[in-house]
Amino acid sequence: MIKVYVSPSCLSSKKVMQFFDKNNISYIKRNIIKEPLTESEIKVLLRFATNGINDIISSRAKLIKHHVFNIESLKLSQIYHLISTSPTVLKRPLILQENKERLQIGYNEDEIEIFLRNDSNNENNEQCEFF
């Protein structure tokens, strides 16, 4: 199942949901402003983030941009707390498909098409014929 973590005022979040609706792709929408992420949910996101915390934290977020918090100097427990109490520090939308080990951050018209693919767990899906 695809989980889409959004904020209501985010245009990119709306584009992702429109794409999924248009293509009949099932997803669970989660407003992270009304229902902030838990520590365990943040850990899952980080597991799939190539560059760790830097992938999911927005450098344009006011708390980061105005140097209220220096992410590099925070302990992981402090980062979890920051994200839970100030979800606007996250990039949005965050699109997670755990069973396919996919995390897409933001809306990119070309990259989102990966969710149209019906990948199987096998790397090589070619059929072999034996004579």
Automatic annotation (TrEMBL):
Which Gene3D superfamilies does the record cross-reference, listed alphabetically?
Answer: Glutaredoxin (3.40.30.10)
Pfam families given for it?
ArsC (PF03960)
Q: Give TM regions.
A: none
Superkingdom of this protein's organism: Bacteria
Family from the record: Belongs to the ArsC family.
User: Which PANTHER family does its entry note?
Assistant: ARSENATE REDUCTASE, GLOBAL TRANSCRIPTIONAL REGULATOR SPX
- Protein name, per record: Transcriptional regulator Spx
